[in-house]
Design brief:
56% helix, 17 helices, rod-shaped, 2 strands, Serine Threonine Protein Phosphatase 5, Tetratricopeptide repeat
């Protein structure tokens, strides 16, 4: 008897669901809107929540992708339509839905500097450490896009600060290269490894030296970055500064006990400065005991 009652309840529920879908399709027809993926994406991109809602009620495929490889959720995020994003999530779309190209909603929000979307997705349960096949995480993308606000949300939700790209670059390497002092400070305060190495054994300090970011060099040294580490070629931060004639940076490194006797391919920092004709650099190095 219970099975018969349960079956009857299921039939009634299905009938109601089918009726709802039919009603929605009828409403779409009256408005001249086709029940199609094209109409769905058009409504999303145009910011038409009423049409989106009707298409959802009519049973539209929420995993379909447009020509750009975006799912409906990604399309809504790209356009900044938070109301439609919430509508899709409420309709059962996962905040971790991944496109065929491997991009998750959180990746798109972080890459496109959409902090309000980042927060919304995290609040709805998005996986903060979901990783693309190319190694990108939302944290790495936020740093690369210099999205300080999203970075804060991601760190607060436990984003892996040691995540690396295939070449070994961490978020701190990316920030050091870009010269974004505020992001470097935020990462260091979150205990990012100051001496993490990427391809070629380059540390964030070496990257900052090569890019000429004096303020970041100082911040990294104050955070405990080791001044005398060498890359796979044997070059230290001081040798790099001497070669590129970065006088102020070299002075900072020397204040933190950079080794003036270190060599790369047999050349010391002063020898490299002499070869480059950098007289002021030569004088500075001599002041710190170089011969």
């Amino acid at each position: 008897m219970r099975k018969i009652i349960s079956l009857a309840a299921l039939i009634i529920a299905l009938s109601m669901l089918t009726g709802c879908a039919l009603t929605a399709r009828t409403a779409l027809m009256r408005q001249g809107v086709a029940f199609s993926a094209e109409s769905f994406f058009a409504a999303i991109e145009a910011g038409q929540p009423e049409i989106v809602e009707l298409l959802l009620r009519a049973g539209i495929d929420t995993a379909a992708e447009n020509d750009a490889g975006h799912t409906p959720l990604l399309a809504a995020i790209n356009k900044g339509h938070s109301g439609i994003v919430e509508m899709l999530l409420s309709a059962g779309v996962s905040p971790n839905q991944v496109s065929q190209e491997g991009w998750a909603p959180l990746h798109v929000a972080a890459y496109n500097v959409l902090p309000e979307m980042t927060k919304l997705l995290l609040d709805k349960g998005a996986d903060v450490n979901l990783t693309h096949e190319n190694g990108a995480t939302a944290l790495l993308l936020a740093v690369d896009s210099q999205d300080m606000v999203s970075l804060g949300y991601l760190l607060d939700k436990g984003a892996d600060i040691s995540a690396k790209l295939p070449n070994g670059a961490t978020a701190l390497h990316l920030a050091a290269q870009a010269g974004h002092a505020e992001i470097v400070a935020r990462l260091l305060s979150a205990q990012a490894a100051a001496d993490a190495t990427m391809e070629g054994d380059f540390t964030p300090l070496m990257v900052a030296v090569q890019e000429g970011h004096e303020a970041l060099v100082e911040a990294l040294l104050k955070a405990g970055a080791q001044v005398n580490l060498a890359n796979t070629q044997g070059a230290t931060a001081l040798l790099m500064a001497a070669q590129d004639n970065r006088l102020a940076i070299a002075a900072l490194l020397l204040e933190y006990q950079a080794d003036v006797k270190a060599t790369v391919e047999g050349h010391t920092a002063i020898a490299m400065a002499q070869l480059g004709g950098h007289a002021a650099m030569v004088d500075l190095l001599r002041t710190f005991g170089a011969r």
